[in-house]
Each structure stands twice: as structure tokens, then as C-alpha cells.
């Protein structure tokens, strides 16, 4: 993949210095040379190894006798779910989306009923991993098969088998919202587009599988937990809440974490289980997921059926939108499961103005792996729906899809814009991003080629797909979360310390799993303090070193965490200024601060560097009244509001109508993520995001057979794309600073994924419109494309 | 995942290897391990002993014997890909080998291992059938030669006995034949959904010989005899190509799986055969 980089200036003058510089990542040297501290690499003397027995049946009553395994070579202990039922609390679900939601008990080891293929039912602890795995075969299990329900609509039918018999229903929750006069908007609408789109179930496939190591100190009752997690602070909180061990005795470390995409934004059975085993056995215990386990027992993403109606005037002006979702919870609720589809609630209107909007969502239990956050978490689903509908509306009225968007989008002079679903979009310039994308893409030239191929009945047709997306980043104002039933807040914490040597420690509450926090935050601190980039150490991912924080998800690390870091650094400068004035025996008003040096205005040579001030603050020989020794400051930031990046993505896809193969020929992404701190990191995020969004459009799907077995349970069957399957990307940016934070930054972690899926599917459908095709279900595999053509042409399928 | 425990031996002669296999019916040969190791790690097989052939010198390398190429079973895909004699005398084999797995797989995986694994979706079984290769196997009762069409009998099953080892493959000279390996897969480094290995010999104005083999259109690689008969003797023009390719799925029994249902595969086999013949005949 290559990047064509050209810059469109479209905001206030860029700050000079580190912010905006394409710094290479400080993290990369050790990550790329294998010097990593993945959890599984951490070796502690005397560690015991854990293996889990997982139900091969999607729904069964189980009677488990683990005692025979206890006699196998090397085995220290073996337990069934029933053996540990009293010691293992249920797993938490932290977002109660409705007052009457159904939240069934979710034990780390299923006690007498397994509810998805992969549900853990017994555990072996042994001296080596091989012994633990071998001993699983000795566990005796009687499975009594129970009826399986996999399809959401069947799960809601009368008399359907129940995933949780006690609940009396497979419905987890029903949620609805209405904005504006929906009936009026739809009454006599000249154009009505009605579609059903399916967001297939996806498997996150982080490069590093999950891994947990728990080391107890029996004498003091303290525990250190290493986990490949995005959320060490939440892991500590919930381990404390659920075990009764005080937080002060639990230290959670997220060492190097090799990707997450939301799948490690969870409190997992294995974390609770290993904590309990370490407590019970008094020895370190480790478990590392196999890739096969990762497919079954790490959360899945998406899995939504969308029934959509769009009403428009004869010229294409949108009057109203109705959205009715079915969202598959899987068998249990994980940390945020029911909230994920609702995070898309306000994003279905996209960048468009409309008179009315209705949203409904029903969460449904099925005998499948639980779903939860996966890159974008609700917003990709929403963006796909509205961007596909805009293309359909354009086709219905024979209007160019970019023109159709222009007729409906919010104009740049209308920001901040209170959109129909209650959010206020902070800033944006859809016109500028679209104009730039159109130019880079050679939109008119490709349209002309498309016309020629259609005319010639070429076996390989060309399609052009558009996606003009926005998304909601920077989770989240705590008040907003509280109003929506979330148990926690959305603030973020940072501490910036100038050490006696003049080096800097920036202690942050967000914890990276590949994003480059260390580099980005170093750039922010370097500019603010005027110290060298290389003098800054960013401390993260360890609740002992960075006790306050709410971790990494929802494109929040820069827009929330980065602003907290910047604010803390500003506080350090303010304190340093007070001390510098004292040391120079002038008033603070007489001092200027630039490039790390305080200088007395009009008195050449009367200066103190911030490093000198730091040592003076450490020695504390002469402090002004009321100023405490040391040079350090904290900041806890609760964001005022979200920020809304946007952009225009254009995809040209060639479709071989004989085989159904789709080949992306050109992909242009012009994103506006506000002020850019590090363009290299932004581009990396966009590349990865595009890869995952394209993967949903063309390649990936979790398929279950009729018995509830995951048939795409290996990399070979699930087919995530490699570099060889992806096109080169042409990237560019416009830069419209956010108005909801002082840095003007917006998030970029999810934007590429959110934008690209509809761009690609729109291109596929566009290529095939002359054949009568108006949708291809994702992923648009060759067979599905071929069948769509075949069926549209009147052939039997 | 961790395989079930097994013993490991590394004999230096074919005879020693055969002796181990003959003595233990649950022993299994390992060549490059590119197919076997995943099976072991998923615990889909649990052999008692792995017999590693890497130290058997006689199984490595390519040589010319008369008008045949003789390819040792332990020759890696990468070695075949970079062998000038293969490029000259069996270019179809080089073309098919270039599509096997990825670079790492091609450096470790072997020709003989791939053929013995007999995955109908593999690239080399179909190529071997189109090349009318001769397999040479050695067992307790000595050597025997098996025609490629008879070698593959079912899904992951050859005609070899558990105590027989494929030692070499003989391939006739097809220099001067038109050839094409047409592989259709969803992902760059995946098995074929359908593949077509085609060889066409022309003399004067017409097609004098045609060999077409299909991958993943049955539980074993199959020759598309109806295509071969329909195309041989024609002028090799596009009309003849199209007519012949229409017979591609005759007598096949394609599988249905997540990559495609049987009817899609049947359709693909016709399209890909047409494309392969067009390329091979230069129409």
C-alpha cells in the first residue's frame, strides 16, 4: 500500500514545532524487533498454566466431572463450573440500556448449561501448558443437547427455544426514539426507499490473542494481573468489585498489547477465573488463548439486521428516515453488548439534514458468541445504512450520487449544527473534502470509462462508490453517559512531571494497543513545555504507575486523553512560571515563555530554562510562599462534547461479471480529523481502518452451521485480507479544527473502517446497476456477486 | 494449540523410513509440514510417530532422465519455481507452483508432500494430472509406478498404502505446448475455489492434443475428458474454445462450502476452462 500525500490547508495556521510533525513512532523499534512484553512473554517462576474445556455444542445441559483430570501428569487442579460456582461471581455488563433490560447471569465457567459453542465449562491447572491441554481429554462430560436458536427473527417468534429459560424471552431490550413529525415526513412522500441491509457478524482477529497472568503475593494479599486488555483500569475496578479484594491490593498491567479493535474492551471470563485460581492456589497462573479459542470465545462484532425507510421529495431532499434494528447479543451480555447498536442511534442521519427521524432497536439473544464493541461500534452500521440509502436515492432519481449528497448535506457555514437526533456537530467542511476527493479520484474520467464499458457490454464492469461519512468520537461527556444508563464516566486523567534531571514523565490514563500514544503525547508535551521530544517518557497501562484513567476505545485517546495531557503540561508551565519569577526576582507578568525558557522582557540574559526551574523545584531551597516543591501537575478532563470527524471516500471497483470477482482499482480517502498531531500516525490509522472496512465489504463473515458451530473458525476460513488483497490507497486530508476541545483535534481510530464499507459496496452495486442489481449482501464474495447478477437477470439461483 | 504427544524419527534412507511405517500403522510421514502441522495443532490427527524425510538425500532435487524430468518428492516448491529445467520442460508446473500458498509455505512445503496430501483444492494435484505425471512410490514390497490419474482416489486419499512413501515424480516433456494454470480464489493466499490446468499442443493449423485437469471440482483432481475430446482436432479458434469449455463440468462432483456452492463451481469451471484454453492455445 502506498500513500499519495498532498496537503490541503483548510484551517487556522498550523502550530510550529512538534504538533503536525511526521515523527516516527518511539514504540516501533521494540515492537518491530521482537523485544516485546506481550503478556505471554512474561515468565514468572512457579507459574501454573491454565487450559479451558469449552462446550462443542451450542446449547446443552452439561454434567461435568473434572476429577479424573486431576490425576493426569502435571495437573495441580481441575474444576468444573459447578465446583467453582460459589467462588466465581457473574461477569459484569455495565451499560443498562433500558430500565427493563434482561441481563442473565453470566458465570466465567458455565455451571450446568452451555449456551454457545465455546462456552467454557471446566478448567485444568497444570505445571506446563501441554500438560494442561492434554488433561482436558480426561474430563468427563455428559452433554444433553437443547434446542438451538441462531437466527434473530426465529428467536423472537412465539414458542422459540430460549437461550435463557429463566428469562422467559430471547428479547434483551427494546429501545425507541422519535425526532420530529415522522408521520408527516412520510405522508405522501414522492420518493420512498425501503431496504433491508444485514451487517454480518465479524470476528475482530487482533494479532495478539488474549492472555492473562495473575501473580498473588499470599503473605500480603496482593495481586498483580497482566492482561492483554484495552482497559486495565476497568479490569482492576471489576476484579475488586466482584472479588471483594480492595483495589489497593490489585495492580493491573496492560503491557505491550497487540491490537484489540474493541475486542479487548471487555471484562472476560478468563480474567475473573485466573484471579480466582491464583487466590485459591496461591501461585501465579497463566492462560493464553489459542487462535481457535479467539474465534469462539473473544467477542464478535456487528450482527445487525437493518430495516430502513427513507422518504424524500421529488428532487431528492430527504424528509425523513425510519430505522428498525435487530441486534444480536449472542448468548450473554458482555461489558457493553446492548449499548453497541445504540451508539449508532444518533448517527443514522449521517451528514444530512432531514425533518424527522425514528429509531428503534431490539436486542436479541441467540446461542452464539457474545457480541460487543468492534472498531466503530454502532457507527459503521449506521453509516453503512445511510450511505447505501443515499446511493439508492440517487439511482432512483437518476441523479449523480455526489450531487444527491450535496443537496442534503449540512453546509460548512451552518456549523455548529444541531442535527435531527440531538447531537451538535462541532465543525466540518463536506464541500471541501468532497471537492478534493473528486479531483484526486478523477471522478469525471472514471464515470466516462464506466459509460464506455457499459456501452461495450464489457465482461468487466466498473463501479464507483461514494461514502461521505461523519462519526462521533471522543467517548464521552460523563453526563451524557449517565443519562444513557452507563455505570461509569468518560473523563480522562494525566499527570505531567518534570523530573530533577529535566526529563519529563507524562503519566496517562489511556492505554495503547497499537495506536502510538507514546509518540503523539510526547509531541504534545514537547511543544507545551519546550523540551526535546526524546526527553519525554509516557507512562501508561499500569494501575500502580498510572492509577487514574478510563482507558482506550471510541477514538478517545487524543480528543479526551490528549487534551488532559496538554492541560496538565500547561499547569506545569504555569507553576514553573511562578517559580521562575521568584528565582529571577521579577513579576510573572514580566516573563515570557518560549522554547522551554523563561526570559525577563527587556533584560537580555535574565533567563531560566524550564529544566533549571525543575531542579529548583526539586531542591526547594527557595520556594515562593504557598508554592509546593516539585514540578508536577495533574489534570482530569471531562469532555464538553463529542467531536465529529468526517470525510469523503471514493472507491472504483472492477467487477468481473462472469466470475463475480471484485477488484478495487482505486481508493481515495480525504478525511478531516481536525488538527493533526502526527500525520504518519493518522495515515497508519486510516490504512488499517480501510483494511478492516474493506474486509467487511468484501471478505469477512462469521458463519454458523445449523447446529451452531462456527464454520469459519480459522484464519483460513474466515479470510481476513492480507496486504496482497488490498489496493494502494490515495490519502489526503482537509483540516477543520474541532470546536469542542482546545487542541482542535478529532479522533481517527475508527474513521477509515466506518467510511470504507459503504464506499466499496456502493461501488459494487453501481457496477451492476445495468444488470438490475440493487444490492449485494456483505461480504460481496465472488459467489454472492455472481448470484446477484444471475438472479437479477431472472436466472434460478 | 498443542499437538498430542508423538515420537519423532529422522531416517536417512527410504528403506529405514519405510521400516518405521511398516512397524507402526499409526506413524505418519512429515515432509515440509505445511499441511500436516495445522492438522496436528488442531488435534484432527494424532499420529504416534512422525517420520521426517528431510535427511533422505535421494528425495531432493530435479534431474533429467531421457525425455523425462524426475522430481524428488522432497524438492520444495521454491526450488521447483527456480529450476530452469522445470521452466523449460514443464512450464505448467512452474506456473501452478507459483500460486501455492505464500512465500514461506513455498520455502518449506514440498512437491511430494503436496501430492501425497491429495487435497483436491491444492494446485499441484491438478497440475500433475494435466502433465500426466508418473508417481513413484516405495513400500515394503519395493517400487511401483502409478499414473497421476490413478494416484488420487478420494478426498485427502491416494492409492498409496500407509507404509508406502512417494519418492519421485516423473514428468514428460511439454516444451512447446501451450499452457495455462487458471486459479480462482477469494484471497491472495488461499486454496483454489476452482482451478484449471491446461496443456494444448498445436501442429499445422490444428490442435493435436489437449489435456485439461480441474482442481476442487470433485473429491479428487479430475481430467476434463469431454473438453479434451471436444477441443482436440479443432482449429483452436475462439468458437472451438467456447464450445469445448462448455463441457468442463461434465462428470464432476463439486463440493459446496463457504467459498461456493456446487452450481457456482460448475459455472466457474466453464468460465475458467475457456480462459485457460484461450491462453494456452493463443486464440
Radius of gyration of chain B: 19 Å
Largest β-sheet summary of chain A? 7 strands, mixed
- Pair with the most extensive interface? A-B, 26 and 22 residues
Low-confidence stretches of chain B: none
What does the radius of gyration of chain A come to? 28 Å
Instruction: Please list the strands of the largest sheet of chain A in the order they lie side by side.
Output: 4-6-2-13-10-11-12
Question: Distance between termini of chain A?
Answer: 37 Å
Question: Quaternary status of these chains?
Answer: heterodimer
Q: Tally the helices of chain A.
A: 20
- Tell me about the biggest sheet of chain B? 5 strands, antiparallel
Structural class of chain B: alpha+beta
- What's the total count of β strands of chain A? 29
Adjacency order of strands in the biggest sheet of chain B: 4-5-10-6-7
Order of helices and strands of chain B: EHEHEEEHHHHHHEEHEEEEEEEHHH
Report the strand count of chain B.
Answer: 14
**Structural class category of chain A:** alpha+beta
Amino acid at each position: 500500500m502506498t500513500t499519495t500525500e498532498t496537503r490541503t490547508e483548510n484551517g487556522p495556521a498550523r502550530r510550529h514545532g512538534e504538533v503536525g510533525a511526521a515523527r516516527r513512532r518511539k514504540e516501533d523499534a521494540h515492537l518491530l524487533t521482537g523485544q516485546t512484553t506481550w503478556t505471554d512473554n512474561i515468565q514468572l517462576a512457579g507459574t501454573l498454566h491454565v487450559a479451558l474445556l469449552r462446550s462443542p455444542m451450542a446449547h446443552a445441559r452439561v454434567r461435568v466431572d473434572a476429577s479424573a483430570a486431576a490425576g493426569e501428569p502435571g495437573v495441580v487442579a481441575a474444576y468444573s463450573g459447578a465446583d467453582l460456582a460459589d467462588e466465581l461471581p457473574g461477569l459484569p455488563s455495565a451499560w443498562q440500556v433500558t430500565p427493563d433490560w434482561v441481563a442473565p447471569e453470566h458465570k466465567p465457567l458455565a455451571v450446568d448449561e452451555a449456551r454457545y459453542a465455546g462456552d467454557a465449562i471446566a478448567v485444568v491447572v497444570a505445571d506446563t501448558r501441554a500438560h494442561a491441554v492434554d488433561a482436558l481429554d480426561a474430563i468427563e462430560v455428559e452433554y444433553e443437547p437443547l434446542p438451538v436458536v441462531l437466527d434473530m427473527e426465529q428467536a423472537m417468534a412465539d414458542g422459540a427455544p430460549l437461550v435463557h429459560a429463566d428469562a422467559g424471552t430471547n428479547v434483551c431490550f427494546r429501545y425507541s426514539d422519535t425526532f420530529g413529525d415522522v408521520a408527516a415526513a412520510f405522508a405522501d412522500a414522492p420518493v420512498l426507499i425501503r431496504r433491508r441491509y444485514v451487517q454480518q457478524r465479524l470476528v475482530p482477529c487482533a494479532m495478539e490473542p488474549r492472555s492473562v497472568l495473575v501473580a498473588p503475593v499470599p503473605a500480603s494479599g496482593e495481586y498483580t494481573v497482566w492482561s492483554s486488555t484495552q482497559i486495565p483500569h476497568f479490569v482492576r475496578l471489576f476484579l475488586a468489585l466482584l472479588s471483594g479484594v480492595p483495589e489497593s491490593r490489585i495492580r493491573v498491567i496492560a503491557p505491550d498489547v497487540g491490537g484489540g479493535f474493541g475486542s479487548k474492551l471487555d471484562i472476560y471470563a478468563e480474567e475473573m477465573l485466573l484471579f480466582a485460581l491464583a487466590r485459591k492456589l496461591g501461585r501465579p497462573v497463566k492462560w493464553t488463548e489459542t487462535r481457535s479459542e479467539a474465534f469462539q470465545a473473544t467477542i464478535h462484532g456487528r450482527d445487525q439486521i437493518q430495516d430502513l425507510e427513507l422518504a424524500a421529495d421529488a428532487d431528492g431532499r430527504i424528509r425523513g428516515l425510519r430505522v428498525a434494528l435487530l441486534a444480536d447479543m449472542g448468548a450473554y451480555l458482555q461489558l457493553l453488548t446492548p449499548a453497541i447498536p445504540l451508539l449508532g442511534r444518533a448517527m443514522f442521519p449521517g451528514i444530512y439534514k432531514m425533518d424527522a427521524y425514528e429509531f428503534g432497536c431490539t436486542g436479541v439473544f441467540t446461542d452464539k458468541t457474545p457480541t460487543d464493541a468492534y472498531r466503530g461500534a454502532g457507527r459503521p452500521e449506521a453509516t453503512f445504512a445511510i450511505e447505501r440509502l443515499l446511493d439508492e436515492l440517487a439511482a432512483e432519481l437518476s441523479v449523480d450520487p455526489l450531487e444527491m449528497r450535496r443537496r442534503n448535506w449540512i453546509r460548512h457555514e451552518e456549523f455548529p449544527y444541531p442535527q435531527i437526533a440531538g447531537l451538535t456537530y462541532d465543525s466540518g467542511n463536506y464541500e471541501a473534502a468532497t471537492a478534493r476527493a473528486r479531483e484526486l479520484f478523477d471522478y469525471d474520467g472514471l464515470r466516462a470509462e464506466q459509460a464506455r464499458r457499459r456501452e461495450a457490454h464489457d465482461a468487466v464492469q466498473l463501479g464507483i462508490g461514494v461514502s461521505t461519512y461523519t462519526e462521533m468520537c471522543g467517548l464521552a461527556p460523563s453526563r451524557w453517559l449517565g443519562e444513557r444508563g452507563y455505570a461509569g464516566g468518560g473523563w480522562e486523567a494525566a499527570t505531567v512531571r518534570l523530573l530533577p534531571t529535566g526529563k519529563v514523565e507524562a503519566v496517562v490514563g489511556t492505554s495503547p494497543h497499537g495506536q502510538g500514544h507514546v509518540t503523539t503525547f510526547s509531541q504534545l508535551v514537547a511543544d507545551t513545555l519546550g523540551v526535546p521530544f526524546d526527553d519525554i517518557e509516557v507512562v501508561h497501562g499500569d494501575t500502580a504507575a498510572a492509577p487514574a484513567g478510563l482507558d482506550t476505545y471510541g477514538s478517545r485517546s487524543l480528543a479526551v486523553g490528549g487534551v488532559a495531557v496538554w492541560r496538565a503540561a500547561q499547569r506545569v508551565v504555569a507553576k514553573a512560571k511562578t517559580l521562575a519569577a521568584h528565582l529571577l526576582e521579577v513579576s510573572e507578568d514580566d516573563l515570557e515563555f518560549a522554547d522551554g525558557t523563561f526570559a525577563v522582557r527587556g533584560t537580555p540574559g535574565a533567563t531560566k530554562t524550564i529544566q533549571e526551574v525543575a531542579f529548583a523545584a526539586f531542591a526547594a531551597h527557595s520556594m515562593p510562599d504557598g508554592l509546593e516543591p516539585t514540578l508536577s501537575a495533574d489534570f482530569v478532563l471531562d469532555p464538553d462534547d463529542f467531536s465529529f470527524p468526517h470525510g469523503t471516500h471514493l472507491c472504483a471497483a472492477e467487477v468481473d461479471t462472469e466470475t463475480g470477482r471484485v477488484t478495487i482499482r482505486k481508493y481515495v480517502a480525504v478525511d478531516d480529523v481536525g488538527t493533526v498531531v502526527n500525520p504518519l500516525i493518522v495515515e497508519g490509522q486510516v490504512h488499517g481502518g480501510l483494511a478492516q472496512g474493506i474486509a467487511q465489504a468484501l471478505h469477512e463473515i462469521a458463519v454458523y452451521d445449523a447446529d451452531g458451530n462456527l464454520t469459519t473458525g480459522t484464519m483460513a476460513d474466515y479470510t481476513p485480507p492480507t496486504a496482497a488483497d488490498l489496493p494502494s490507497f490515495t490519502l489526503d486530508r482537509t483540516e477543520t479544527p474541532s470546536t469542542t476541545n482546545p487542541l482542535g483535534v478529532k479522533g481517527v481510530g475508527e474513521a477509515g473502517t466506518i467510511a470504507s464499507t459503504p464506499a466499496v459496496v456502493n461501488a459494487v452495486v453501481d457496477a451492476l446497476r445495468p444488470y438490475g442489481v440493487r444490492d449485494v449482501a456483505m461480504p460481496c464474495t465472488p459467489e454472492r456477486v455472481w448470484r446477484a447478477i444471475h438472479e437479477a437477470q431472472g436466472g434460478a439461483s | 494449540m498443542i499437538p498430542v504427544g508423538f515420537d519423532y524419527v529422522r531416517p536417512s534412507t527410504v528403506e529405514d523410513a519405510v521400516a518405521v511405517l511398516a512397524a507402526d500403522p499409526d506413524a505418519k510421514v512429515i515432509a515440509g509440514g505445511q499441511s500436516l502441522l495445522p492438522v496436528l495443532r488442531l488435534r484432527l490427527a494424532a499420529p504416534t510417530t512422525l517420520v521426517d524425510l528431510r535427511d533422505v538425500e535421494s528425495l531432493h532435487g530435479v534431474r533429467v532422465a531421457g525425455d523425462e524430468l524426475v522430481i524428488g518428492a522432497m524438492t520444495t516448491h521454491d526450488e521447483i519455481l527456480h529450476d530452469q529445467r522445470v521452466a523449460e520442460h514443464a512450464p505448467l508446473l512452474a506456473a501452478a507452483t507459483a500460486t501455492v500458498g505464500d512465500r514461506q509455505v513455498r520455502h518449506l512445503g514440498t512437491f511430494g508432500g503436496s501430492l501425497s496430501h491429495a487435497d483436491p483444492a491444492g494446485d499441484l494435484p491438478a497440475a500433475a494430472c494435466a502433465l500426466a505425471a508418473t508417481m513413484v512410490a516405495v513400500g515394503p514390497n519395493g517400487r511401483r509406478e502409478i499414473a497421476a490419474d490413478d494416484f488420487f482416489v478420494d478426498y485427502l486419499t491416494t492409492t498409496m498404502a500407509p507404509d508406502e512413501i512417494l519418492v519421485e515424480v516423473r514428468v514428460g516433456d511439454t516444451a512447446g505446448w501451450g499452457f495455462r494454470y487458471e486459479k480462482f480464489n477469494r484471497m491472495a493466499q488461499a486454496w483454489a475455489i476452482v482451478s484449471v490446468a491446461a496443456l494444448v499442443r498445436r501442429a499445422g493449423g490444428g490442435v493435436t492434443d489437449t489435456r485439461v485437469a480441474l482442481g476442487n471440482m470433485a473429491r479428487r483432481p479430475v481430467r476434463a475428458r469431454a473438453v479434451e475430446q471436444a477441443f482436440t482436432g479443432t482449429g483452436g479458434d475462439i468458437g472451438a474454445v467456447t464450445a469445448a469449455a462448455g463441457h468442463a463440468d461434465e462428470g464432476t462432483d463439486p463440493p459446496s462450502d463457504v467459498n461456493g456452492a456446487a452450481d457456482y463451481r460448475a459455472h466457474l469451471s466453464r468460465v475458467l476452462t475457456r480462459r485457460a484454453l484461450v491462453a494456452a492455445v493463443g486464440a
